[in-house]
Structure formats: C-alpha cells, structure tokens
Inverse folding.
C-alpha cells in the first residue's frame, strides 16, 4: 500500500527480527496463500491485467487483514516452488512482502537493507531484460511510490544516530550503499530514459504514438511495465527533489506531464494526489501562489466529489490525510495571496470550516500569526530528508529534523517579509487616491519606509512564472504619480465565455436525455 | 581573445548537457565548480547547473567549497526578481548559512526583497570584497531596482530614482540621457521640486493596459463543443 507518511519510531534493535519470528513461522504457507500465488502467477503469465488487478488490490488486502494482521507474509522461499521458482515473480512477491511489512510492522535495519537489494534486482531486470508482462497501473505506481517512501523512511531512520546499537552501526557501515541517494535518483532517472517516455509523450501530442489513450497499456503484444514505470518515475523524481528542497528541478522533472489534462497520472488516485500535492507545494515554495491555489482547488474539488468511491480501498486513509494537508496548504497560499475568486464555492466552504478562523489570524501578521503559519506548514509539508551519509564520530546525534527546520525557517522568513503588506492593503482598500505623506502619517512610518513597503508590495505580488514572465497576482493594485498613490481595484470579471460553454454542454445533455426517453 | 571564446562556449555546452543527461553523478562536481567560475568571469548564468552543484554538495558535504557557494549566491542575487536566491538557500545547510559572508548576503537579499535600496547600497559598500568579486553585479541590481520602480511609478522624482540605483549628480544626468535616448524615458520638470522621470508605460504602472485575461477562453475549450455545434 502506498506511503504511510506518519512514519513511526522503530526501536530497531537486532532482536526485532527474532521477536517477529516468534509466533510466526515464515515457512508455513496456508492454503489460501498457496492458491493466491498460484493464480497470480498464472494471470501474470497470461497477461490477464484485470484479474491481476483484482488479486493485487482486493485478494492481497483481504488475506492480509485475515491472516497477516501483524505478521509478515510467508517467506518467498516457502512459496517459490509453487510458482516454478520464477525469478521475476519472486521479486514481485518480495516487493509486496516488504510493502506489507512497512505498512503493518516496523522494519529492522536488516530488512530495510534487504528491501533495497530486492528493488535493485527487480529494477535491474526491468531495465536490462526484455520483460513480457502487463501489470496494472495501480501496482506499478505503488512500486515507485513505495520505493521513494522507503528511501525517505531510511533517511529519517539513519539520521537518528543517538540510540543506535553497535550492531546497527556496524551494519550501516558495512552496507553503506543501501538506499544511497545517488542510487535512488539514478534508478528513477534510468526508468525515465530507458523507457523513452518523454519522447513517447511528445510524439503522442503530434498523433504519432498511443500511450495516454490506452492508459499506458500495450495492446500490440508488448509490455507496459518499463513505459509506465518510466512515466511514474517522473512523479517519483518530483517527490524526491521536494524532499531535498530543490523545487525548481522537481518541477522540471514533471514538465513532460501536462497536468492541465487527464493522463496516466490520473488513472491511479494515489498518483494523481501525489503529483498535485508536490506540484502545489513546490509552487508555494517558489512563491507562485496563484498556480498553487489553482491546482489545489482543482484536486480538492475532485476529491470531494469522488472520495466516496474509494471508501473500501486501502488508499482511503492516505487520501483523507493528503486532503487535509492540501487544505492547510491552500489556507497558507490564500493568506499570503488573497485571491478568493480562484477557489470553487464547495472548496471555499470546506476551507472556511476547517481554517476560517486561523486564516483570519494569519492575516494579522502578529506573533500569533507566525505560530499558525508554523503549525500549518509543519503539518502539511513533506518529510524533508538529509541525504548525506551520517557521521559515525562521537558524540552521536540525531539530525533527522535538520532538513525540516531549514525549510520551515526559510518559509517563515518569507512570511515575515510580507508582514507589512497586510497593513498597506487595508488602507489601499479605503482610498482611491492618497498622497505618500498622508498615508505615511496614517501608517505611522516615515515616507522612505512607506516607499519601501510599497516596493515590497509590488515585488511580492508580481511573481516570475516558469517562462520568466512577470504576472501580477495582486487583488488590489496601485501606481504612483510623483507623490500621489492611485489605487486600482481589479473588478471581478464575469466569466461569460466559461458560463456559455457550460450551458451549451448542459443543454446538449438535456436534449440527449430526452431523445433517450423517446426511444424507449 | 577570438580563439578563447568559442572554446568557452564549447565547455558550457558540455556542462549543460551533463546537467540535463547525467545530473546525479558525483564525478561532474569539478566541472560544475569550474562552470560557476566561468559564469562569473563571462557574465553568464545558469540556475540549473548551480542547483545541480548545490545538490551534490548536499549529498557530499565534505566536498563543499564555501567560496563557490558564495559566488553562486551572488549570481542568484543578480537574477532578481526571480526567486533564485531562496531556491539556492533551500539547499544550503543551516550551519553554513550562519557563516559571516552568507549572513551578509542574506541581509543584502533581504534589503532587495523589501525595497530598502538605500540600506542595500550602504551594506554593499561595506562588503566590497564579496560583491566586487563578481563583475556585472552593480548593473544587475540597478536593473532590478528599475524593474521595481517601473512596476510602481508612472512618474518618479529624481531623488527616489537616485537612491534606488545609487547614481547621483553628473553620472545620473548621463544615465538619464542614455535611458531617454534608448529606453523611452521622458524627463520632465516637476513643480518646483526638481526633475520628474516618466517611465515607460506597461500594464503594471498603467492598469488600463492590463489585458483582461480572465475573460478569454482558450481554443481547446471551444473545440470541446464542436461536436455539439456541428
């Protein structure tokens, strides 16, 4: 199952492996499991994607809930002979085995390292051998998602050096290549390159290729695995770069995917949400508030309308969690860039309910306001990581919070710079013209300071977009003529174009419905 | 001189390619460092390459050169109003940012972000060793200052302009003449208070020029109803 971002403390002593084994025999294979692997293996060989998906999504979950609530699945060695000792199937089984372990239990250091090895083997096979499988998008997304999650989890774990046992430190020293950042990034990059996915998407725009139209599946006898892994790896790269604090490069990695359209990334809800969450967050950190607000608004509306259909799915909890986090991010964006008209009514009312009061306080820019910005940011931000290897020198320290603290500090620094803008806005709302001298008086600052405030207002409300153009996101604007300020309020424009389009489509729908009635 | 330039261009092309094709590779670190120095001496700039280097420093902190990082930050400052400076800071560990030269650069950035031009030029004068190491610094900041002024003012009094771009007296006269001849600035006589400079019209200081983008409908949306109309 996809990432559980609430990473919980693992005591992580060597005894854990034995503790887990007590009351659990890794070699005992219940009949239902035997049947599961035999059928799954067959369906994979026969490329029955629908059946694979059913077994992967539903049967695996049901068996986990029934038989393996707090123990691992049987070891791969115990089931291998039911599936002809097929190497690829065993790697896939192990991938699911580890994912289940991470979700239900706390992995030991050895298990983390073994999981890394398994991913390496599995990815090598996909990258360098001709793999003749069709796997459901859900599974392929989960692989990439889990890979990045386990990397993030490992970095967090490794950064807590203070209470590590001697065995753990020895293992860390010995297996220093496990989950190293170069390896993780290069695998994701390799998928993108080897699959040729960027060129495929380009050619698709010109009508040369079919990819999105078939949801990534290959209907000409080939395999979808490398292509779709390449596709999802772009989202994976966006995610890793956000964890490192490199928002510009993260967005660049996502560029080949057009998020203004449906695509393979929307075919799996987990992927859709992960994409937009990180896209929005990266834009927020790059001060492109309007862009972030637009995308958060769209996805929150989408989740509102569709979450009922996912109630039974194993991703439901994650969907709800990300939903709440994005409301928090939206609250932050709108407090820094008041543009309520960009937000849909439904989303707006939810937002008011959850954060109405907090948003009012954030816009006061006093000490309490900063505390709320801190709270919301800390709640909603990704789990930033320190990618470098730890220092084994005494004294051993915990540095797992360092990355988060830096991002938070820089974010609050930006908020602080915008502190005086709220005051200016209040005055600009009331006057259509006012001299610099008078306004300086009212605001109890000297003219020079007022000029700086006005420059700040202009600079902060005119962001540089991805093409290097200046776009204004000011709801309230002004210009200065010598020493007179002239206020310009942007009137809300009636969107006639959109309104007519919606009504045309609606009418067509009504007529079609009526036609259907006649035929009956 | 003529021989050197094509070679320089060749090296930059290769580094950009490296960053595009093989960025997660510790071996390219020396190339990226050389590229920073090259950007400084040839007055060019590449954010992507510099971010790539800062990432590698993040992966292997013992290889970090604070001098190179300082140069990257100065170049980023020169790219304002783009947020490049903060994008770089996101990748630099807190303890490094506490060093004296970085604290100074952060203060300089803060002054520019909050329109405090006089304080900026005062501080920059005190830190000549940092900023003079990068040619083109002064002009880049003056360009940024004029950008902010152009967003804000239709007509700007001479003293305000002078303070923002740190040019006075005869040099300012020459500067204004040049701008009037080449960038459409108009010099007026203000009522008893000295010169007024009329800045070129744009959609930010002349709101009536603002295109009402909100009501335009993209072609793709219209094409969706073609089946209905046709």
């Amino acid at each position: 199952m996809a990432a559980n971002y609430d990473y919980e403390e693992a005591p992580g002593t060597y005894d854990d492996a034995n503790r887990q084994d007590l009351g659990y025999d890794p070699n005992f294979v219940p009949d239902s499991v035997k049947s599961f692997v035999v059928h799954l293996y067959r369906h994979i060989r026969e490329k029955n994607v629908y059946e694979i998906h059913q077994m992967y999504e539903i049967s695996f979950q049901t068996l986990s809930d029934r038989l393996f609530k707090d123990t691992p699945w049987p070891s791969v060695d115990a089931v291998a002979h039911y599936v002809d000792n097929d190497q690829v199937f065993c790697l896939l089984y192990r991938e699911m085995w580890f994912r289940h372990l991470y979700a239900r239990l706390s992995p030991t250091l050895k298990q983390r390292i073994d999981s890394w090895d398994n991913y390496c083997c599995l990815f090598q096979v996909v990258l360098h051998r001709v793999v003749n499988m069709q796997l459901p998008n859900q599974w392929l997304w989960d692989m990439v998602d889990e890979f990045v999650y386990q990397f993030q989890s490992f970095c967090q774990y490794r950064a807590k050096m203070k209470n590590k046992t001697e065995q753990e430190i020895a293992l860390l020293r010995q297996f220093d290549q496990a989950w190293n950042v170069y390896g993780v990034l290069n695998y994701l990059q390799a998928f993108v390159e080897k699959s040729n996915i960027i060129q495929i998407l380009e050619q698709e725009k010109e009508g040369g290729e079919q990819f999105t139209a078939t949801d990534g599946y290959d209907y000409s006898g080939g395999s979808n695995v490398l292509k779709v892994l390449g596709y999802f790896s772009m989202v994976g790269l966006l995610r890793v770069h956000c964890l490192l604090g490199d928002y510009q490069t993260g967005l660049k990695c996502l560029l080949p995917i057009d998020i203004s359209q449906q695509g393979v990334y929307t075919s799996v809800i987990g992927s859709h949400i992960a994409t937009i969450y990180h896209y929005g967050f990266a834009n927020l950190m790059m001060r492109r508030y309007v862009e972030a607000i637009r995308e958060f608004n769209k996805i929150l509306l989408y989740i509102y309308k569709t979450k009922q259909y996912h109630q039974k799915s194993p991703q439901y909890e994650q969907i709800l969690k990300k939903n709440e986090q994005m409301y928090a991010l939206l609250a932050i964006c709108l407090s820094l860039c008041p543009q309520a008209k960009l937000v849909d009514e439904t989303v707006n009312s939810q937002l008011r309910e959850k954060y109405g009061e907090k948003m009012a306080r954030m816009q006061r820019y006093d000490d309490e306001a900063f505390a709320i910005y801190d709270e919301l940011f800390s709640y909603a931000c990704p789990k930033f990581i320190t990618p470098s290897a730890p220092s084994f020198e005494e004294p051993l320290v915990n540095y797992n919070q360092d990355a988060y603290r830096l991002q938070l500090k820089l974010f609050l620094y930006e908020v602080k710079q915008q502190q005086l803008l709220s005051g200016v806005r209040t005055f600009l709302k009331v006057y259509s013209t006012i001299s610099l001298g008078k306004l300086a008086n009212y605001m109890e600052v000297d003219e020079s300071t007022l000029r700086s405030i006005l420059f700040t207002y202009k600079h902060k409300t005119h962001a540089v977009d991805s093409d290097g153009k200046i776009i204004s996101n000011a709801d309230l604007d002004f210009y200065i003529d010598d020493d007179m300020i002239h206020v310009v309020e942007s009137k809300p424009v009636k969107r006639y174009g959109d309104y007519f389009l919606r009504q045309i489509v609606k009418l067509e729908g009504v007529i079609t419905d009526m036609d259907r009635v006649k035929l009956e | 001189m003529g021989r050197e330039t094509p070679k320089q261009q060749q090296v930059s092309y290769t580094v950009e390619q490296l960053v595009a094709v093989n960025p997660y590779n510790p071996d390219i670190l020396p190339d990226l460092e050389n590229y920073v120095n090259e950007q400084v001496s040839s007055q060019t700039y590449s954010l992507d390459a510099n971010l790539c280097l800062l990432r590698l420093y993040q992966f292997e902190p013992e290889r970090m050169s604070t001098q190179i990082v300082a140069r990257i930050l100065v170049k980023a400052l020169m790219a304002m109003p783009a947020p490049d400076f903060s994008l770089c800071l996101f990748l630099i560990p807190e303890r490094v940012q506490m060093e004296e030269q970085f604290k100074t650069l952060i203060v300089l950035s803060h002054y520019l972000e909050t329109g405090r031009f006089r304080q900026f030029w005062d501080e920059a004068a005190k830190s000549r060793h940092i900023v003079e190491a990068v040619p083109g610094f002064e002009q880049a900041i003056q360009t940024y200052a004029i950008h902010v002024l152009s967003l804000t003012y239709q007509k700007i009094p001479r003293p305000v302009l002078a303070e923002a771009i740190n040019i006075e007296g005869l040099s300012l006269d020459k500067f204004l003449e040049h701008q009037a001849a080449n960038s459409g600035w108009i010099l007026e006589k203000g009522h008893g208070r000295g010169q007024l400079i009329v800045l070129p019209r744009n959609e930010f200081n002349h709101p009536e020029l603002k295109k009402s983008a909100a009501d335009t409908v993209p072609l793709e949306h219209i094409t969706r109803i073609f089946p209905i109309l046709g």
Remarks:
- Residues 4-21 of chain B form the longest helix (18 residues).
- The longest strand of chain B covers residues 153-157.
- Chain B touches chain A through 60 residues (CB under 8 Å).
- The CA atoms of residues 111 and 153 of chain B lie 19 Å apart.
